[in-house]
Amino acid sequence: MSLVHNCIIRSFNSIYQQARYVKSSEYKDFVSYAYTCYQALEAHHHGEEKFAFPEIEKATGRKGLMEVNVAQHEAFYGGFNKWGEYLSSLSKGDASQISVERFVGMMDAFLEPLSVHLNDEIGTLLTLVEFGDQLDLEGIIAKETEQIMAKMNKTTEMPVFMLNHDLTYESGLHTNFPPLPAFIKFFLMRVCPTVHYNWWKFATCDMSGRPKALYRAG
């Protein structure tokens, strides 16, 4: 879960840090990148609320155990979804009409509660160790990940995670993320992103999974 959160943090940092420096000729690609990051995070939280959290509560017998996490989702959903609606309108219409200040201002409205949530949730999950063998947390998270990945668009949402996961993190300890056969991972990292190649220049890692300098930054 922490690796998923790291991908989310890296992707949203890349959006925020580059927004004011993107050239007008790149607005369409940048908006598409930002919108697909929005969709990827939305899919992740939907998977938690519809599968992972209920399964955790079922296994532990503690109804409401994960309510604090749901409440944290709701704390940033308002601003987050307004930003998503703005991105949707730009992607379907004329991306050149973007107001960068409005774009950044809308992010400011939800980034702090989102950051709090992404950090706090890991702590919440760690406390579940008290349930021992009663709770197969690893199995639940793996199943949630499998379900989400099966539904994600392989040329839009999946590259958000594949190209914002730093394979050099902690000395390359997490090269098995996501847990997929090598040929599938190669397809997702090297082939699928070529469909919308210009979007992923704004991502934080290249197609080999190594960090790269931000394409547009001050």
From TrEMBL:
Source organism, top-level taxon: Eukaryota
Residues in Hemerythrin-like domain copies: 5-127
A Pfam family matched in the record: Hemerythrin
Gene3D superfamilies in alphabetical order: nmb1532 protein domain like
InterPro entries in the record: Dimeric_xanthone_biosynth (IPR053206), Hemerythrin-like (IPR012312)
Protein's recorded name: Hemerythrin-like domain-containing protein
Naturally occurring in which organism (per UniProt): Glonium stellatum
Lineage: Eukaryota, Fungi, Dikarya, Ascomycota, Pezizomycotina
